[in-house]
TrEMBL record:
Residues covered by the PurM-like C-terminal domain: 159-250
Binding site for Mg(2+) 1: T52, D53, D130
Lineage, top ranks: Bacteria, Bacillati, Actinomycetota, Actinomycetes, Pseudonocardiales
Name of the protein this chain belongs to: Thiamine-monophosphate kinase
One GO BP annotation of this record: thiamine diphosphate biosynthetic process
Length: 318
């Protein structure tokens, strides 16, 4: 698609978000508006963190690849990592649900079971929702969270000289997607990573308490998501591939499929690991690994000092 063809594909996902958010005046109660993993709003009772992510059948999941319970777990998990990436603790979720009339009722109850399993993993519940008709299954989850007195860790706080670190696996869900896309169902470790991430929601809190200057959850791909930190913070970021964990399991799957496992680690989405920046020489919180450095503005996101030759991650409509 060309940029000027008048379609959303031509505009692109991130320019479209810019087009629908730029220039809108927010009330004073919007402490942090669109542009981060979650918003922060002031209420007379305090502050609330809020975020929403939509999952569409055929785009985000297939019910011949995943059980309905796994899809339900994923729908909640991908929202709770946006709350955690602000340095907040989830407090509740609401679930908008759309499906065709001939959808088996058991699919809806199994999806719900999965959503409750993941919610309970984070110590929260589903407190409301909505049910409507549509041509395919759409799950829209809204998650709320609480900062517990902390300042939100935004995408915009990285400074040149900070270290870049990650917590959680990278590349596994993309390897699973490649496996499923070729009609295979194993190895189950990577396939299950694609079906549902298993995020450590406390990792975001540990990062916030450990002085993280910026943070994001890796939904689209490490390079793409670090690109959001680089843009918001007006800095560059350089990743050292020698410090990335390319697991032997990914290497095995890559060899079997004729694919590059490092590309999955750098650009694969849906693992919902956390990436953050910390002041140089800070002791990194438990579970966090240094993978790079924040550089001067305008250098973009580089890999071993060079521009990466592929897309940095998933983009809808591309
Ligand atoms: N239609 C919209 N109206 C207002 N804000 C939007 C809209 N779509 C996205 N945003 C905002 O744009 C920012 C980036 O959204 P994006 O969906 O890329 O972030 P994310 O949820 O962290 O990533 P992902 O969807 O890959 O998990 C967020 O702050 C989001 O709230
Ligand atoms: C059936 C099927 N086809 C492709 C994919 C891959 N995929 C879909 S959305 C996404 C990025 C995150 O999305 P978002 O930005 O909406 O959070 C990725 C990597 C999948 N999961 N299922
Ligand atoms: Mg996010
Ligand atoms: Mg989103
Ligand atoms: Mg998200």
């Amino acid at each position: 698609m060309s940029p000027n063809d008048g379609t959303v594909a031509g505009t692109g996902e991130f320019r479209l978000i810019e087009a629908v958010t730029a220039g809108r005046k927010q009330p004073e109660t919007t402490l942090l508006g669109p542009g981060d993993d979650a918003a922060v709003v002031a209420t007379p009772d305090g502050r609330t963190v809020a975020t929403t992510d939509v999952l569409v059948q055929g785009v985000h999941f297939r019910l011949d690849w995943s059980s309905a319970e796994q899809v339900g777990r994923k729908a909640v998990a991908v929202n709770l990592t946006d709350i955690a990436a602000m340095g907040a603790r989830p407090t509740s979720v609401l679930v908008g649900f759309a499906c065709p009339p001939d959808t088996e009722t058991s699919v809806v109850t199994e999806l719900t079971q999965g959503m409750w399993i993941e919610a309970e993993r984070a110590g929260i519940g589903i407190v409301g929702g909505d049910m409507v008709r549509a041509d395919q299954i759409v799950i829209s989850v809204t998650a709320l969270g609480d900062l517990g007195g902390r300042e939100p860790v935004k995408r915009s706080g990285a400074r040149p000289g900070d270290v870049v670190a990650v917590c959680g696996r990278l590349g596994w869900a993309a390897a699973g997607l490649a496996v499923l896309g070729r009609g295979f169902r194993s190895p189950v470790s990577v396939v299950n990573a694609q079906r549902c991430p298993e995020p450590d929601y406390e990792a975001g809190l540990r990062a916030a308490d450990g002085g993280a200057t910026a943070m994001i959850d890796v939904s689209d791909g490490l390079l793409s998501d670090l690109g959001h930190i680089a843009t918001a913070s007006d800095v560059g970021i350089d990743i050292r591939t020698a410090d990335l964990d390319v697991s032997s399991r990914l290497t095995e799957v890559g060899t079997a499929l004729g694919a590059d496992p490092l590309k999955w680690v750098l650009t694969g989405g849906e693992d919902h690991a956390f990436a953050a920046t910390f002041p140089a020489f800070a002791d990194l919180p438990e579970g966090w690994t240094e993978i790079g450095v924040v550089t001067m503005p305008d250098s973009g996101v580089t890999v071993d000092g060079k521009k990466y030759g592929h897309h940095g991650g998933w983009e809808h409509w591309r």
